[in-house]
Design brief:
This protein has 263 residues and is α+β, with helices and mostly antiparallel strands. It folds into 2 domains: 1-42, no CATH class; 43-261, no CATH class. Helices cover 19% and strands 41% of the residues. Zinc ion (ZN) binds at residues 10, 12-13, 15, 28, 30-31, 33.
Length: 263
């Protein structure tokens, strides 16, 4: 299959803009205009400037390796950081109001106690604008307090920038669906069997935010592990941790260390 890369002109500044197949909302790398397949597009678009350089991130990772009792003791010493790359990821934040009307029974006590009512909640639901990505969106607390009007000057040097592969309508539908599932999940605390469940979601507004995340790969005893670090708070979003050495040799080493450290 031939990959067709379309070229369009930016409606903001006229510069040529490359369209990578699959990307729908494209940001002009010259003037920062957003466009949806060639048209100027008025979505509330912001960016969260990153706070770290690669050297800082390497220090953060090394520090993370040194603390935590569930990690191998020599993790910091024996690990080699293979790569650390900052990527500005596109997230839609849908401000939603969800109303679930339900009826059913609470049965876990052995009796059928009727339960019915309404659950109304407001959410700022996050949807990653990339397809087929295993990014842990739920675990990531987007540092929204640092956001500012989108401007390409805020993309750190050497950082990668990813356009969105879905548009805001699709993001809103995903957000509605996920928020509805979440509402049901909350209700399962008090309702065991539902006889009816109906969720309506209203979108108040949706914005697009580009946030910096560091993708790190490190090598420990011949294996590669991955780690994600928030480019603003420096906190670990998710990290692979090597298993402790559970072999007999490893056990023996642990024992010896225990004896000696008692000093
Ligand atoms: Zn432009």
């Amino acid at each position: 299959m031939v990959e067709v890369v379309q070229q369009i002109s930016c409606p903001g500044c006229g510069a040529p803009v490359k369209v990578v197949p699959g990307e729908i909302i494209i940001t002009c790398e010259y003037c920062g205009s957003d466009m949806k397949l060639g048209e100027k597009f008025f979505l509330n678009h912001s960016i969260i400037p990153g706070k770290y350089q690669k050297e800082d991130v390497v220090k953060i990772v090394k520090k993370w390796m040194r603390v935590g009792f569930y990690k191998p003791d020599d993790l910091a010493k024996r690990s080699i950081i293979k790569s650390a790359e900052c990527i500005f990821l596109p997230f839609f934040i849908a401000h939603i109001e969800s109303l679930t009307k339900y009826s059913g029974f609470f049965t876990r006590t052995g009796e059928n106690t009727p339960r019915n009512g309404e659950l109304k909640k407001e959410y700022f639901w996050k949807v990653l604008g990339r397809r087929g990505s295993k990014f842990p969106t739920k675990e990531y607390h987007i540092p929204l307090s640092g956001k500012t009007q989108f401007n390409i000057i805020h993309i750190s040097k050497n950082a990668k920038f990813l356009n969105s592969e879905i548009d805001e309508k699709e993001a809103e539908n995903i957000a509605k669906q996920e928020a509805g599932m979440h509402q049901k999940h909350l209700l399962e605390d008090t309702v065991d069997v539902f006889s009816s469940l109906d969720t309506g979601c209203k979108i108040i507004d949706t914005e697009l935010v580009h946030a910096p995340v560091w993708f790190i790969e490190y090598n420990y005893k011949g294996r590669v592990y991955k780690m994600l670090v928030d480019g603003v708070s420096g906190e670990t979003i998710k990290a692979d941790i090597p298993l402790p050495d559970t072999s007999f040799k490893g056990f023996f080493k642990e024992m010896k260390r225990g004896l000696f450290s008692r000093g």
